[in-house]
Description:
This protein is an alpha+beta fold. It has helices spanning 6-12, 56-77, 123-140, and strands at residues 19-22, 26-30, 40-44, 81-85, 99-104. The protein contains 3 helices and 5 strands; from the N terminus they run αβββαββα.
Amino acid sequence: MATNCVFCDIVAGNQPAHVVFDHPEFLAFLDTRPLFVGHTLVVPKAHHETLGDLPVPLTEPLFQRVRQLSVVVETTLGAAGTFVAMNNRISQSVPHLHVHVVPRNPKDGLKGFFWPRTKYRDPDHAAEVAAQLNKGFAEASPQSPT
């Protein structure tokens, strides 16, 4: 855990978040400033600032979860595809490794790197979307803890 890290605070339960899945090594939760509804962040629970800081044994399990989530976002939310991205230092708004999984659809307005942001109607709407994705994740990986 790092001091003054909002993602470490979320992992510790000291900061609220709409959790999509909770794995022993990773946590996924809705982005508070989503590009589109369902925009989810996947973070290692231990504080690692960049991909290069992530221990090699955690790399494959992290991307297994990201891969699963990208499928779940499409099937659960009816997205035509997903955008999966990660920044390392530059444009990294929180200095804690995180992977964005963003639902995409044709003509959704996402062009280049000047992206519109959206909002959830209210906290209940965010909770509902997180619950849908959590259910989809659990169904996609019944042998894995959610």
